[in-house]
Design goal:
Chain lengths: ~525, ~400
């Protein structure tokens, strides 16, 4: 904990920050400070509250929507928008870079406030000032270079140059090296150290513990929206085991229903499954993996964001992701064709997307029509729909899944997240699949609805389905799954039975692998379009 | 909002509806469904009064149908295009072009009108396919492809006709849009009983289908609206249709083109609401990626939506040519805007995924009644345009407001 004297000379102090989204508490009573000229790292699992904390700090969530105090340069600040914090030199660089691909580096650097008079941009001044800040970050390219022609590493540097152009005093980097190769990462970290020598304070959010221990002066660990520990790296060297334990240690009781698995025969087997990136087809996203599910088994796939879990599932499901896909899928011992979504459904696969709103539902339509969409054959004769049968099916799922709605003719956009998820689950159950892939099945769902989803998943397994759960919430995987496979960089790097698995072991399996990143660009976060935007040639 | 965790699951009684809805709820819901038709009735009532009864005179009513037939015909195709999340700006030009082709075939080459009509419909389908191909498989925005199509077919029509009008058509072809159904029964000088009987038959059929649905719903223990509401609504539908048929029967009977329109309403209503392909079109327009992940062949569906639009644009072009009895190089100009406006006034969403066949027809009729009513009132074409524009904006605003509520 900070002493009063130490906090006096901090450039930033956040005291007792709490922030809720409806019933979900994202941050509770977080304390955090940054001293002048230090690099302060923040660690935590996905969803621990790191990004939320930074959004509170930068004014994305305006003053009044959270509790607690922000003291910056000795004065309590109440930022109402991101512009307020930027004006005082707090600059955040997000994980998804906010650059416009078809504008030049210089134009991007001075996007919001280009130098000039009466709204007329002074192009010479833009060029010269851009050149100056780009030199500071070690970029020799011409300021006229289009962003789209730069690699990811250089784009990251342009972002930092942009921050410098705004007279940054506190630089916040959210996973800056997530999409960089080893060399670019090292260069970026060196740059941070150089800035530090010049007196710049920075906050570094990262999953890569080796990087953190290399540059950080202090490390704050967040867990479930609380700041659990701040380690002073100069007082005691931070051991990675220590950090991992602090990140994941928590009470798991009573959040998952009791369940005794009834595991049967081998149901689905995937062998040597290889997938290439949909646009950069020479890049391998999934590297010849093997995978299997038994009847009645709940298999978890753990991994960090961008590990390739969604890409793996979607490529299996009718090649919905990737190109140049090879490998074999067997269901119940017979080789099946999963080359289109229709064939995959027919073969007995179902994929419940991680993004309900974008990929799962027709929000403007009622839940009845959403439930039947993937199996219209089941409610029609000679392609003519039977409205009564459809209504009966919808009402049946409404009852079985306990979907809370005013009626099956309610617009699905008006349902709560948990109920929407039940609609998507109903849709896939109505296709009578053998194996269900559930991608982040409880994302954005409140605790009560989560419990219901867990019960449904267990019931599905008990009725002989194979269920594959992809989740970034490790406790969920530990509480739910009979077996957990750990994926990183498009490979399975560990496998644990229910008894063997622990958060530490899973984290260690990932971290061990992260440390040995090969010198190539890793798999990008999900969404091929976005990936295409952020990857250089 | 109860957040009970364990108890709520699987312990709920199996009764279907948790609460029975009151008549007020049903009226509120119906208002949304029938809001369009009520505004059409209100607009008709308004013009009926300010034109001192001219609007619903049998002659004028028949003209109203004839004047708007080609817009309604094309609106069916446009509705599907808009529901699937696209737009087609080329329909006016391709309708004009098809009219020109028909004229060249029938007037210059004396080709039999049935063969020529079929050839024109096929050509329309090809035009739709040519545009749909780029939209569906190359993902070029429909706005751009059909804007190009609009220029191309406008130019081709001009070239084909050499800038001159071409006509007249044979009298049989003219019957397509200005003919009336034959009278089988003995009739008075100004009354055609077959038309009235046909109208009453359709009205009875509609009521019969509604009753059958209700019986099935009751038998399956489903929630139904209160009987009084059901009876009242069906009586009103029956009454209105029979009254309009009586009016039409007392001029020259049912126009042929009205029969075509009725068949198209029945067909497209059925396709959109009762078939898997219709359902899939809504899914594609509502969320194309979700639809694809649900096994819908989204590209093929989009492609055929445009083929269908092309065929209907051709039919609209033929009806229009037959009505004018000549193919003019200017034919079809601006139709696309009326057709698109009809769909939006009729409640289709500009974002795709929402819209009904009935709505599009009513939207076309609202535009038609306003044109007709304002013309009778002697309002110039200038202010007619202004008012139509405002009605379009207003209708969409009301719709967006309803969505937000």
């Amino acid at each position: 904990m900070e002493t009063e004297a130490a906090s006096m000379n901090a450039i930033l102090e956040m005291r007792g920050i709490s922030k809720s989204f409806g019933p979900v508490k994202a941050l509770s009573d977080v304390t955090f400070s940054v001293k002048p000229g230090e690099i302060h790292a923040i660690c935590g699992e996905n969803g621990a509250g790191k990004s939320t904390l930074m959004k509170v700090l930068s004014g994305v969530y305006p003053a009044g929507t959270y509790e607690g105090q922000i003291i910056y340069e000795g004065v309590e600040r109440r930022f109402r928008a991101i512009g307020d914090s930027e004006a005082l030199g707090i600059i955040i660089i997000h994980q998804e870079l906010a650059l416009i691909p078809l504008l030049s580096a210089a134009e991007n650097i001075f996007l919001a406030h280009p130098p000039g008079r009466f709204g007329v941009i002074d192009r010479d001044s833009v060029w010269q000032r851009a050149k100056a800040v780009m030199r500071k970050v070690g970029l020799d390219d011409s300021p006229d270079t289009l962003i789209t022609n730069m690699g990811v590493g250089k784009r990251q540097l342009v972002e930092i140059a942009k921050a410098l152009s705004k007279n940054v005093k506190l630089l916040i980097l959210d996973e800056p090296t997530a999409s960089l190769n080893e060399r670019d990462s090292a260069a970026l970290l060196d740059l941070l150290l150089e800035f530090k020598a010049q007196g710049l304070s920075s906050i570094l959010i990262s999953h890569k513990l080796n990087e953190i221990s290399r540059v950080a002066d202090r490390i704050t660990i967040l867990r479930d929206g609380r700041s659990v520990e701040t380690i002073d790296c100069h007082a005691e060297p931070a051991s990675e085991d220590h950090i991992i334990r602090a990140m994941v240690d928590r009470d798991l009781e009573h959040r998952y229903p009791e369940h005794t698995p009834k595991i049967g025969d081998l149901l689905m087997e995937v062998s040597d499954w290889t997938v290439h990136h949909p646009i950069h087809t020479d890049r391998t996203v999934i590297h010849g993996v093997d995978f299997h599910v038994r009847a009645g088994e709940i298999v978890g796939i753990a991994g960090l964001m961008g590990a390739g879990r969604t890409e793996f599932a979607m490529s299996l499901f009718g090649r919905s992701y990737g190109r140049r896909i090879s490998g074999e899928v067997q269901i119940k011992g017979r080789r099946v064709d999963v080359s289109t979504v229709q064939r995959a459904i027919k073969a007995g696969l179902a994929y419940v997307t991680e993004d309900r709103k974008e990929l799962g539902l027709h929000l403007a339509d009622d839940l009845r029509h959403n439930i039947t969409l993937a199996n219209l054959g089941g409610i029609s004769h000679l392609r003519v729909l039977d409205g009564i049968r459809e209504l009966r099916v919808a009402n049946d799922y409404r009852r079985r899944m306990n979907i809370r709605c005013s009626g099956v003719d309610q617009e699905s956009g008006n349902l709560s997240g948990g109920n929407q998820q039940k609609v998507v689950l109903s849709k896939w159950l109505f296709t009578s699949p053998d194996v269900l892939f559930l991608d982040e099945p409880t994302r954005g769902i409140d605790v009560g609805a989560k419990y219901e989803i867990y019960c449904i998943i267990q019931e599905l397994a008990d009725s002989g389905h194979g269920v594959v759960v992809i989740s970034s919430e490790m406790p969920e995987l530990l509480g739910l799954c009979d077996r957990i496979c750990v994926m990183n960089e498009g490979r399975f790097v560990g496998e644990f039975t229910r008894e063997e698995a622990s958060q530490e072991r899973i984290m260690q399996a990932i971290m061990r692998d992260v440390r040995s990143v090969p010198d190539e660009i890793p798999a990008m976060p999900q969404g091929s379009e976005r990936a295409a935007e952020t990857v250089g040639p | 909002m109860s957040q009970t965790i364990q108890g709520a699951l699987r312990t709920q009684p199996s009764g279907l509806p948790e609460k029975t809805r009151t008549a007020a709820d049903f009226i509120k819901n119906s208002l949304r469904d029938y809001g369009m038709i009520l505004s059409l009735i209100a607009i008709m009532a308004f013009f009926q009064i300010v034109t001192h009864g001219t609007l619903l005179r049998p002659l004028n009513l028949t003209n109203l149908v004839l004047q708007n037939s080609y817009i309604v015909v094309m609106a069916f195709g446009m509705l599907l295009v808009i529901v699937s999340g696209h737009i087609d700006l080329s329909v006016g030009s391709s309708a004009g072009f098809i009219g020109a082709v028909a004229a060249v075939m029938m007037v210059n080459y004396h080709i039999n009108f049935i063969a020529a009509t079929l050839a024109c419909l096929v050509l329309g389908g090809l035009i739709g396919a040519a545009q749909g191909y780029w939209i569906a498989y190359f993902k070029i925005p429909s706005f751009i492809v059909t804007l190009a199509g609009m220029l191309v077919f406008k130019g081709l029509a001009l070239a084909l006709l050499g800038g001159q009008s071409l006509g007249p058509f044979s009298t049989t072809f003219q019957k397509l849009s200005s003919g009336f159904i034959p009278e089988f029964l003995p009739h008075a000088a100004r009354f055609y009983p077959t038309s009235l009987i046909l109208g009453a038959g359709v009205a009875a059929l509609l009521v019969g289908l509604a009753v059958r649905d209700r019986v099935r719903q009751v038998r399956n223990d489903m929630e139904v609206e209160p009987l009084s509401l059901f009876a009242g609504r069906n009586a009103a539908i029956f009454g209105i249709i029979v009254y309009l048929s009586w009016l039409i029967a007392s001029y020259r009977g049912l126009p042929n083109v009205l029969i075509i329109m009725a068949m198209l309403i029945a067909f497209y209503g059925f396709v959109t609401e009762r078939t898997t392909i219709g359902r899939q079109i809504y899914a594609v327009g509502g969320n194309v990626r979700a639809a694809r992940l649900s096994g819908v062949k989204t590209e093929r569906l989009t492609f055929f939506t445009f083929v269908n639009m092309g065929v209907l644009a051709a039919l609209g072009g033929l009806v229009f040519a037959a009505r004018l009895d000549t193919a003019s190089p200017k034919a079809g100009q601006g139709f696309e805007l009326d057709v698109i406006a009809a769909c939006f006034i009729g409640g289709a969403s500009a974002y795709g995924g929402v819209g009904r066949v009935g709505g599009a027809v009513i939207g076309a009729l609202i535009m038609g009644v306003m044109n007709n009513g304002m013309s009778i009132m002697g309002i110039g074409i200038d202010y007619q345009q202004v008012l139509k524009g405002l009605v379009l904006l207003g209708a969409v605003c009301v719709d967006v407001y309803n969505q937000r509520r």
